[in-house]
Amino acid sequence: MKPDIIKTLQKNISLLTQNNAVEYEYIPQHYKPLPSLLTLHEIVELLRAIIFPGYFGEVIVDSNTLEFYLGVKIERLFSLLKEQILNGLRFNSSETEIDQSDGLASDIALAFINKIPELKRLLSTDIKATFDGDLAAHSYGEVIFCYPSIRAVFNHRIAHELLNLGVPVIPRVISELAHSETGIDIHPGAQIGEYFSINHGTGVVIGETCIIGNHVRLYQGVTLGAVRFRINEKGLPISIPRHPILEDNVVVYANANILGRITIGKDSTIGGNVWLTNSVPPGSSILQQKAVAGSFYDGLGI
User: Fold this and answer.
1) Given CB 3.0 to 4.6 Å as the disulfide criterion, which of 30, 75, 94, 105 pairs with 85?
2) What pLDDT, in 10s, does the model give residues 120-151?
3) Do 43 and 115 belong together in one domain?
4) How many other C-beta atoms can be found within 10 angstroms of the C-beta atom of residue 36?
5) What are the phi and psi torsion angles at 105 (to 5°)?
């Protein structure tokens, strides 16, 4: 290798090693094992195969072997999940806390596996709501196998449960896996009730502190977001409830923006392209203003 090439490489290696620029102070050095994106993807796919056997994972030829099939999958799930939770717990931990993480990771992994039957029940309600709300769906199986909204909600249900169990980092990764695949962005902190459905789905955003009731349906492009952040004395955002509450039986049509800690009363309908920053009572129907038709002549209005 030419001396000038070696010199250039060494110079930049030295600069990168120093890591003392003012702008770098926000990026801490990290030398601990990180959760693996590939392994977390495998965990999600294992859960799909466990909750919806036959639709995902290997083909099940004989229903008599289902118990054995699930046993193999769940045993591998526990092993992978324990390892990834351990890395997640160590992400921002001190050395003292790291020493106590191994047993905690095992306990959390086991607690999560105890939640899988309830996750299956919840997801079954989402599948029914999605099928019932879409005349283009020909079967429940088609909804399970094909619909990106079910994929996104599946990841959310998993991520939300892990977050409730105190797992750091990993819930966000699992949510972002679905976000990148479907264009549906659901923060793992959002609380979502039964029989939830998203029609089409692309561009939907659901914020961290959202609370969504039962039998709620959203369409593409809906944002359940925040209006503004409060800042503490250090200039950092304060984590407070800042996203909407949607009560039971609410429908929100395409590209509506519902912003701030407001409440949409039960049985309400929010029309497409509505910008809403105030609460509305139960049974409301909120629509955008009608378009004003007009004609222009000789360049008038340009």
Assistant:
1) 105
2) 999 999 999 999 999 999 999 999 999 999 99
3) yes
4) 15
5) -60, -40
